[in-house]
Design a protein that fits this description.
five-stranded mixed barrel, globular, alpha+beta, 874 residues, 28 helices, six-stranded antiparallel β-sheet, DNA-binding
Length: 874
Amino acid sequence: MLWEEEMCIISGDNRSWQDENSPKTVIELWCRAKSGHSVLVLVNGLRPYLEIFDPNISPDLTEKNLSLDFVEKMKEVDGPPKSVGNKLFEGEMKEFWRIYVCETWSVPKLRDKLKKLGWIVTSADINFAQRLLLDCDLGPHIKVKGSVLWADKRSPEEAKNINNSNSQIANQNIKKVGGSGIYPVDMIISCTFDCLEKTLPFPTPFVTFSFDLETSIKTNEILCAAAVIQRDNERSEHTFTGDEENIMKGLTNLIRYEDPDIITGYNIDNFDLPRMKERAEEIYGKQKMKLSQLNGWGRVPLIENETKRLLPERRQNRVWRIPGRIPLDAWWQARQTLRPQRESLRYVSQLLWPDDEEMHKLDIDSSQMDREWEERPEEVLEYCVRDTIIPIDILNKLQSIGRKEALASVSMTTVDIAATATTSWWIDSLVIRLADRSGIAIPMTKSGPRRRDQIAGGYVHEVEAGMRPWIAVLDFKSMYPSIMISNNICSTTLVRNEKDNSEEDNISPITNTRYISSHTRKGLVPQLLEHLMQSRDLHKAAYKKANEEGNEEQSFLQDQLQYAVKILMNSFYGVFASSFYRFTDKKLGASITEWARHNIKEIIRQLDDEGKHVVYSDTDSIFVQAPVSNEAPTSRPKSNDLSIDSWKNAKATTLDFGKKLATRFSKEGAELEFETALSAFFSHGAKKRYVGRVVWPREELLIRGYEVRRTDSFELLRETMKEMFELILDDQSWSSVEMTKTVIDDVKSKKIPASKLVISRSCKGRWDNKNSKWSFDMYSNENLPYVRAAKDRIKLGLSFTPGMKVGYIVTDASSSPMKVEPWLVDELGTKPPEYDSEYYAKRLAKALGRITEAFNWSEKELLSGSRQKKLFDF
DNA sequence: GCCTCGGAAGTC
DNA sequence: CTGGGACTTCCGAGGC
């Protein structure tokens, strides 16, 4: 009996098997059904392949140089080559042959052999599960029709009725279609590739597992562990104690029983996952099956020949791979979306839930874990449980999982690729799909050394120091994608030979690179981008409609989708300007930016000619001074003040001015939008550093580039500078100088708490296996403050992970190198170090002085000559 | 004190 | 062996 259901693909893999001596490859899709249970779909019927052509002949010549018979006889090849006709490869038509392969894992070897023979190999580095999505034009959300081979506890009753076989029979049936045994899922279905169908996206009820280990600092041993499972918005907590082996077995059994899709925790990538591996190996060495009992988290049967997929593995020292599941570190998600000043779990939860003390209370000294565990194990366990709950709360708050699912949906990949892979994977998914349908060959990803010669980037306009009143800010809408569309920029439309020149070609303004007119042939990428632009508009409209109708679930989903499309569109330029991407030519990236510079400079020139002052411009934005009288106030007067009308008039003039400019300079393929109106704009004269008082479409302070936004600044500087900007934009530059002097005096007299003076920078590092210690040899000089602070942390037994932000206090800057101490108050609750007040006063004066300089108050004047100085003996 | 360099973190 | 890009500012170390 057939079973039909909608589900979302979490991850895919494939395995080779023999069907009556003929080689077959089955695709395994790990899914979560819309109705809540997990499903493994075994898909048969597709054969892995790659495609080749003989570079020495063109289609009009019939003579073959290279022998296809020879290819057919190669042991990796399955059956005769199949003619697939002519395809476009780097501007030329070639005759292509499809070569079927016995096993996917022999592709790299076959690739090399064919290349040595002289063939050019294409479509030969595409993951076979991804191939299924490409060839059947599927995204992550699918409808499956198949026969039920196994229906376990959490599967629907109807499915259990269809399949009531015992596990032995199920095991046999699964092996008959190429599966490896009874996978730890709720349901196992078998079908052929034509039984899969694309469906509309829906929010999938993923199951999440969060865990945390507490370990001994002396021996690295695991002392205890905790885990939380979130299923259907309900959570269950679990704790594990006893000997190490039992703790690890307990965690593993829980995972295999609960069958989560997502595995999270705080810093699991760099701490808990590697520690699990290390401790398991400490106990069982290289006995894979024994190791699997301790750490077999892969979603495959717990059997001998699956040990390779059972054990979590770290690829290229970065992303962990747990087949069938998605490792999603809450630390990394928080870091990416929040960009916090510091990154400890305590700090991040304080940032997200400032009022909930329960969440960030600190009752365990983790640097003394051995003693704490000895003296009060219950509190340690409680602390451990809390540290598994917060990561789930973080993922929920940041909507991380929903965003990954939306990205998977718009890029038509599995959720794990959206969650863990890089931009080029998402774009591959769309580009290859379309190329395959358009008779265009798929070149391999380019390898070898990275390109040295840079292409030119965006244009940045000089900015004058000082205040400018009433500014209209205009932006090009999706600038790079629009340029790619309107000029038909694509590797498939690039004119490579002079003989192919046509009068209709689009010709780039500086390098005179030519692209075929879209009337002749539309490029792949312009087609895709145009489609994405339209789909973003559709999602935005659907979002608006859902909002009006009060349909919260739809509105949330549509907003996620439109945002994902935006992210995806913006990734195109980067990938096509890179040196490695399969469909790239460095001319493409260069053309895009030269058209961009050309467009924006032309507008600036015209405005200049008309005497309209362009105050600033960066890549796709222009700041233009509006024709407002100098008497108009730049800060909003009280509503009963006489000057309120003058302010309102100025605002109206600026709005009108902005709208008119937008209409005037917008053209097909380069739409200029009126983004914001500022009543005042200030810069001290450095590019990418400015402040503006926004008066439309909302009222707010806009700060870019300045220390206020920088994580490697310190709280006091951020606060003071922000206050200073508020005053300056309110025309109170004098009081801003006074205020600044007071703050500098306060720091000199040590009235400022050290917590406001923590400087934080990310620090690289690598674990040196040979010497069993952390190494910082990637720095040409390790004598940097944050590297020394990181080393101090390590010495104290605190966690260090490569790339983490390390907080420190400068204790003595008079010596070189300066003396610093790590900031441990967040984690250990220890006494803060004594700071070097002179250093902080100087840094404040320097940063703030750059700004006050615009009003003729220098750094030196800020540091001295204040009333308060005399009160404190300095 | 001036300069160069390596490095991190911003803007777009 | 592993990947979006360029443009920009500022900080600290270390040489002279």
